[in-house]
Amino acid sequence: MPDMPFDLHALQAFVAVCEGGSMIEAARKLGVTQSAISQLIKSLETQSGMVLLDREFRPSRPTAAGRLLMELAQDLLEHAQRVNERLIDASRSEVAQIRLGGVDSFSATVGPILVQAIAKGARQISLWSGLTPILSEQLQRRELDLAVCTESTVNDLRIEQRLLFSECFVAVIPRSVAERHADAGHDYQAALQSLPLLRYTRRSVIGQQIERYLRHIKLDAPRRLEFDATDPMLNLVAWGMGYAVTTPLCLWQSRHCLPDVVLVPLPPSQLGRRNFFLLSREGEWNSLAEEISALTRQALQDKISPAIRKSLPGLPKDAFSWK
Questions:
Q1: What's the whole-model pTM score?
Q2: pLDDT tens digits for 238-248?
Q3: Using the 8-state DSSP alphabet, how is residue 119 labeled?
Q4: CATH class for domain 97-165+276-311?
């Protein structure tokens, strides 16, 4: 990369000499010595390869090249000043422009609450949704500032990972099927055996996590219908096509389906939980990361969890955990 032809301090000194009519006046204006002004002008002439001041006159006058540089320098210095002011503003607020990513269920449920809370202190907020591996890559490529993911997959020591909370896996069956089994003695577990399992695809982290859990509890079912997204899967459960293993946040993301499904608790296990991590670069966005952590837990405790429990009374007590 070639060297820049101008040093901004030297350019500032040159403009001050031209406007003030002497190096003495320029030194007074900029708060430096006359010798420093002289050295800056010489370095500017060396860098540009042109004589900018005619020193045969007292005081010195700009040459033809100097007059052209004087004309162009004003805009350059003003732009540099604006850049500096914006950087100062950004460093003071640390939230001038925020690019936040999250897995779909988080972005659709907690995301709006976060945006509402932090919008007052930010000029621009971008909320992206995606799969955990893609979000992690986007953070590493600096396309995102912070990302909420559901698995700790980043090996980069420069990426900090904060555990936000966890939620349990639950099963949902069609309400029509639940009502038939209720007449037979509330044996909802039997309903799981009578229905096909609608799955998340294996390319999704939640799909991989649920498969490990199902093997652990020895719940085996043929692979027939698989989905990348929660909405189509839960719509089919609501229509009586089968049952699904999912999470409370995913259910809340597709809450239009809740009147037509019934929740079936599953055996508790460490493998039966999904963890959410907040990822950010070390030394960057620390105060915002702490704020997002606190806001997330408050949103879950005060708004989302009570609303889900009202719609699904059978939700386990430990459905959400942030300890």
A1: 0.69
A2: 999 999 999 99
A3: G
A4: alpha beta
